[in-house]
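From the shared-data thread, chain only:
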Amino acid sequence: MEAAPSYTRQPDSGTGNPWPIRVALLLLWAVFLTALTVGGLVAYASTLYADRILPGVSVGGVDVGGLTVAEAEAVLTAHYASASGVAYTLRADGQTWTYSAADLGLNIEAGEAVAQAMQAGRTDSGFIGNLTSQALTYLNGQAVAPRLTYDQSKALAVLQSLAGEVNQAGASGGLTISGFDVVATPAQTARTLDVSASLARLDYALTNSAAGTDIPLVIREQPAAIQNLDEAALLAQTVLSAPLTLIAD
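Structure, as tokens:
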């Protein structure tokens, strides 16, 4: 009887467990598909918002995303109209005058802010760089700060106009004799609006929101040279009231 043949199992010469490689390929494929999807969406949005401000962009806290330039300017103009209309009260010698911020030269550059908002998220760094910048704007948003302008010449014109109302010429006191009566004319103190000092206060109030809207103007006073003539008038009155005695040598 012949012996049965024997077989020896040879070890596999493969590379081992193939799943780590498969998982890695699946992850790479998922990343590729995600990037492709995001890129496609951003590219579509870029075309969709070609003539509009990108979503997520705001100006001074006002959302202007998705608006055209004209629409954004209208929204900002209406929003900041209240800021330009803030009333400032100027005070001097018990008198008050009220002016709006716009009257005093304060203005918000809405057009300039909208132009900056339109460029937000858009770069010149190529297609990929531009898509990346837009994607970050969609995700994180971007804020544009509006610029305030101050035309000092308007505030100066207001103060120069008020000076005509406030300024008061001074006059020295005097004595007036009418018959046997003596009348003392009181002195009048000169009062002048200090335009330069008052303008400095306006500058500070208009460019610092914490300064408040009540602004006392600066008044300079110049006392008259001759004052307090009441005693002199009384003495003159006494002299004139006394009997007049003439003595001839």
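The longest helix spans residues 19-48.
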